[in-house]
Write a structure and sequence with these properties.
- The chain is mainly alpha-helical and 246 residues long.
- The protein has three domains: 11-78, no CATH class; 86-169, no CATH class; 170-246, no CATH class.
- Helices cover 30% and strands 7% of the residues.
- The chain is built from six helices and six strands; from the N terminus they run E-E-H-H-E-E-H-H-E-E-H-H.
- The protein is elongated and about 65 Å long.
- The chain starts with 18 loop residues before the first strand and ends with a helix.
Length: 246
């Protein structure tokens, strides 16, 4: 049996007899899943002493996070941390509001912690981003910005006086005819969200693969000269109920 005792940030927190459910797979103890996950991808790794995650493949890192995210590491003052733990708190506008161990459900119906979501989003699209200190969104790709929006939209940032804001949060209120009617954190569901539920801010950033993300809705917006696709997407946001009264 693979020795996983020091394969977590705090070795004494390992719960190696806890039955683990990994989506699409059957229940196993945590020890068995370390041995069997993804056709035994972790069998070549040594967890019997302090583990160095540097240089490991994305598949190995993803496997470690999947196992920890499913509940195989307890304690840590309530936080489930793997040996590859990173501080991702600055993915939120207010870093203290990040919820690393909150369980969220992604579009395919799988449930994971926020830390695991950040690590696994779109085959590791966010793993190269440093959220351990104040994060600068300038120049980031649409894939990265959409990933950040998704993480926050699924509930990984709490507080902010009740408003869940990412590090890249911008004011989109002028997407509505009456700006004060915009409801950025209203949870909406519709065909344009793929049947998933997101806050209006996340819909604005992600609708139609980010078609509206480059539009500036922080002040009075002119629709003159805008493409039909952009106008349709704006109407879709309003139709979801994001513009309140109007």
């Amino acid at each position: 049996m693979v020795d996983v005792v020091l394969g977590v940030a705090f070795a004494n927190d390992l719960v190696n007899s806890v039955p683990l459910f990994v989506p699409l797979l059957s229940a196993r103890t945590c020890d068995l899943w370390v041995s069997e996950y993804n056709n035994g991808i972790l069998n070549g790794e040594t967890f019997s002493s302090a583990y160095d995650c540097a240089g490991k493949s994305s598949l190995i890192i993803e496997a470690i996070y999947a196992i920890v995210g499913a509940g195989c590491c307890g304690g840590n003052s309530g936080l489930a941390r793997s040996a590859c733990f990173k501080d991702r708190s600055h993915i939120c506008k207010t870093s203290a509001n990040y919820l690393p161990s909150a369980q969220v459900t992604v579009g395919d119906g799988n449930t994971m912690t926020c830390d695991a979501l950040v690590e696994n989003y779109n085959s590791g699209a966010l793993t190269g981003q440093d959220f351990s200190s104040t994060y600068d969104c300038a120049g980031k790709s649409e894939e990265v910005l959409q990933g950040i929006g998704l993480v926050v939209g699924l509930g990984c940032c709490a507080g902010n006086s009740g408003l869940a804001k990412s590090a890249c949060w911008t004011d989109h209120k002028y997407i509505c005819k009456t700006a004060s009617n915009y409801e950025p954190f209203k949870q909406v569901t519709g065909a344009v969200t793929g049947g998933n539920t997101f806050p209006c801010d996340t819909v604005v950033n992600q609708i139609n693969e980010g078609a509206l993300a480059a539009q500036d809705f922080t002040s009075a917006y002119s629709c003159s000269g805008k493409s039909a696709a952009i106008l349709v997407d704006m109407a879709s946001v309003a139709d979801l109920g994001c513009c309140g009264g109007n």
